[in-house]
Design brief:
226 residues, alpha/beta, 5-stranded antiparallel β-sheet
């Protein structure tokens, strides 16, 4: 599994130190390096982040205030020169609090603990998030993460999973309300699971082993989620 990390600090040297530390960890992808909380708000509106390395003392809006304002924040590890905000940070459910200068062994411990927490949450989610499919006289329970495509087919919907394909009597619009945020409609007849997306080429997207058309009206929403 790979983990998407975002570094937010107004000091270039501080961002570089964290970047250097993360470069030694082969399962980490740095998706951005930002210098303000304002930039971070806009970035998180269109990007998925697993771990946010966040400074506190930044111009206009502090890291503490940013965390207060985020409705669904990623897992936050504060990286700051100020130890006095630790209690406030943990009251806001920050995952960890690292005081500069940050030793690599302490940094590594925080990252490893964060990855364990993320894995635990995803494992629990996978166990509990089941999707009910009615096909003929049978009712199936499948892990929603195994579904990679839903296709409207007249009065029916084809549901593609990594194991098999189901056909259920329903409307795409009805099933859409039961799907988590990882699913996105890309065409009036297609909904894809972004977790199985491979690439976008022109007006087609590759999802698992299928090529799916993307209509112009849904293309912008898709680009924001890539």
């Amino acid at each position: 599994m790979r983990y998407k990390c975002l570094i937010v600090d107004d000091e270039p040297i501080a961002r570089q130190i964290i970047t250097d530390y993360l470069s030694d960890l082969k399962d980490i992808d740095i998706v951005g390096q930002l210098k303000s909380a304002i930039e971070t708000i806009h970035f998180l509106q269109s990007h998925t982040v697993d771990i946010l390395f966040l400074d506190i003392n930044m111009p206009r809006l502090s890291g503490i205030q940013l965390l207060k304002d985020l409705k669904h924040p990623p897992l936050v590890i504060f990286t700051t020169a100020y130890s006095e905000y630790a209690v406030t940070a943990f009251e806001l459910e920050a995952f960890d609090y690292l005081v500069k200068p940050i030793a690599f062994d302490r940094f590594l411990k925080a990252v490893n603990n964060a990855k364990s927490r993320i894995n635990e949450k995803k494992s629990n989610l996978r166990e509990t998030r089941l999707f009910t499919i009615k096909e003929d006289k049978r009712i199936y329970k499948v892990n929603v993460e195994d579904i990679f495509l839903l296709q409207a087919y007249g009065d029916y919907v084809r549901i593609y999973t990594t194991e098999k394909k189901y056909i259920t009597k329903s409307k795409l619009s009805s099933l859409k309300t039961s799907l988590p945020d990882s699913f996105l409609q890309v065409h009036r007849s297609y909904i894809i699971n972004l977790q199985h997306l491979k690439y976008l080429e022109g007006n087609m997207v590759s999802v698992h082993k299928e090529m799916v058309p993307v209509s112009q009206s849904f293309r912008e929403a898709l680009l924001k989620r890539l």
